[in-house]
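pasting for the record
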Amino acid sequence: MTEERLGISEAGRSRMTPERWRLIKEKLDVALGLEASQRVAYLAEIGRVDQDLRLELDSLLASHEQALTDFMEAPAIGDVSATSIAQEPRSMIGRRVGTYQIVEQIGIGGMGEVYRAFRADDQYRKEVAIKLVRAGQDSAFVVSRFKHERQILANFDHPNIARLLDGGSTEEGIPYFVMELIDGQPIDEYCSKLTVSASLKLFIQVCSAVQYAHQHLIIHRDIKPGNILVTSDGTPKLLDFGIAKILDPSAAESLGPTMTLFQVLTPGYASPEQIKGEPITTAADVYSLGVVLYELLTGQHPHRVAGDTADKIARRVCATEPKKPSSVVRGPKLPSRSSGLAPADGNSAQAARDGKKLSKRLIGDLDNIVLMALRKEPQRRYASAEQFAEDLRRHLENLPVSARKDTVAYRTSKFVRRHKSGIAASAIVVVALLAGMGITLMEKRRADRRFNDVRSLANSLLFEIHDSIRDLPGSTPARKLLVDRALQYLDSLSGEGGNEPSLMRELATAYERVGEVQGHYLQNSLGDTAGSLRSYQRALEIRQRLAARSSDWADRLALAKCHRLVANQLWATGDLRGAIDNIGKAIPISEALGNDRPRDLDVLYELAFDYSMAGQIQGASVAEESYRKAMAIDAAMLKIDPNGDKIQGAYEHDLIDLGNMLKDRDRNFGGALDKYQQALEIAHAIRRHAATTRNVRDVAVAYNRIADVYDSLDDSPHALENNVKALEIYQQLITSDPHNALLQQGLAIAYANVGTQAGVAGKKVQSFESLDKSFAIMKDVVAASPQNLQQEGKLAAIYESRGDNLLRWHEFQSAEQEYERAFAIYEKMGAGASNTGVHLWAADCKSKIGNATLKAGDAITAAAAFQQSLNLAKPFLSSEKPDLTALYATADSYAGLGDIEVRQATGRSPASINREHWKKAQSWYSKSLEVWEKIPSARRKRPKSSAIVADPEIVAKRLQHCEAALAFGHEALQH
């Protein structure tokens, strides 16, 4: 229930205080308990003493009567397929709001109205949902809450939360915001035909969205099926933060006292503390999630019965324990909503309707998990939505869950409170406790033996069997099975072992190895980036607890490594700030250890690795220092152990990083080629006596880097030769390890490189075939790990390469489509990102779109694209050393705008109009050359593989042509 539905008058709000609100609640509680005739007399008596209080109570009682109507159950954004709306839409249909044209009303709530609209400024076509303050609800209070919801969405970027796209105010001053259009079903309807396991997997994504909100200090407070829509592709979206509570006091102050004074809820999904008016924490959302899961699994509400009033539901929520889900579904016939839930994956439709089978599926873990989320006491529920989701994951993976039955002590204490006068009950409790203690003592020795046996087995799997197959080609799935099983065993022991340091070290190591095989971005893995990050973060939490109380230097070294692992995965998911923070914590630990242990190779290796990772994460201005520090440590390690493969490999990787910097930043192609060739020699040497997947892949990486240099030198034959060598290596590796995500990515890049160089060489068929294979592979890699923004960026680069190739063969419209797909990814990656590189890639891509559309004959679209490229690049041109990508995009865009004016100048318009076009063209070309002057002379020539508008020599010739046309007339030039 949203706050505007409480009906509190403006007069009452203007002088509302906590004491006043407590008085209103007391009087309201009394009024709700009276019969209609008694209530009238009671309110009349209050009115004779305090007329304002009477008005407040009348308003609240009127709203109370509608608390459970369908209107209140409707989400802020309803199912867009709905054909009926609760109220007649106001005259917004057909109007423009900002850059959007409103088409129809698709939803209505207490505070807002929601419309379907489309972008109408000719930039691009996109359907959206626009939410405006509802007609007649534009009080200062409502507007403040509406803006509060808009600000919450502006700070969010999560795949399972409806995204905010834009916002502003109409000409009448009505605030609005633009959201992505969610075309979907409420989650309970969508799950009605899914298996239990499929429903749980979908629900886990919802928990992820709620956890994300909690991490951003927001409590939703109105989670219910109608506020969770599932799209046609199975993606759940959490909606309607209209009554969300902000936890950050500094932010809450600006929202006024209404944030905490008003009890706002939908009774059927509110927690006991919400109903009682007690302080609200994130546990309230956990409770609401529990109600939703209860409904998904059983088709029934844990407390609501048809015809119930809000009072009855509220009392039942606070006083009555819900039945176990397994007991609710037991019987010959299931409720209609859950008739499609299969008790186990793959069961027949007939089995899905069998309540006994579904009951068997729910009994045990799922009963305990749901009831733990629905506990009356907030402190006894799951501590977070993430813990709730984790228990569901563990259930799906056949691992132990934390939601166990209440302990004997807890059940006994509850029993005593209910029967304080019962002496017989007390005696039963004592006997039960003594019996439990006796059994515990008898079983202790047996438990100790089991503990040691299981621990020994886990360590054998983790450190002996796993390490023996770690580097074998094709071992990725087997490694995943081994470390998962070892982690399962260790996790089951962690509760018994408490905070025993050696067990904690083993558990942290297990999480790290699970993370590596799940989806470490730069290791042989299965491509589960998000799962890998979670595992590394769990390991980090354990490492931090160990290091805080340990004097062992090895624990500090392990902590530095774990910070680096977390930094790497955060970088892969686009969280640059989190990545910098973690690598910034790793380096001081490693540096301190390096000072204490200057000849310890493990310490030096970690410190060099930390510096190298920092170089990848940091901006170009500081990356060189980090790379050179890493190489200095490599040199020190080589003096200690000149033949060690691990040290040689570290030196090889740092040579590659330094070569990248020399090529990309300094355009020192000779220096870069030297570094790459040194790296290739080392990689070959290591491969000859240790042909692991990683070592063989390093050879392919070096070949690709060498090809990059030849491409920059416009030596396409040598570039193609080295790219083909890299491709052949990846083709061999992927045959023996087809599930390895890192090899799949490498194969996609290798095909893209070969396709690009084949196109430059005029080999049309080979170029298209190779680029098509590249796209198909990389698309699957991204789909398997959508959280990995680094991989998504590579998919965008492949789209660009396909566009460049199409442009090369004069297929201009197809080229534009590929560039648009790349730009859409850059735009998504750049939303709220602090990584300037993404914005610069977007600017460069827009310039290419302008070039392609101009060549296709669409000057209007081309001009808009060039202008957008300039707008994207402009913020990066003001520094003393502007970024080269920004300069290239700007120079190309200015030249492209000049080309458009020349086309218009050579048309059939009157001479005076043509002359104006010549002047504009002259101005654009001059600006392009001014930008080219800012680019070092060594970097003004770009390779043939790059799709550009014109190099500076061509721009200078076009400028001369303009000047001649202005001096002698265009007709004279034709003669």
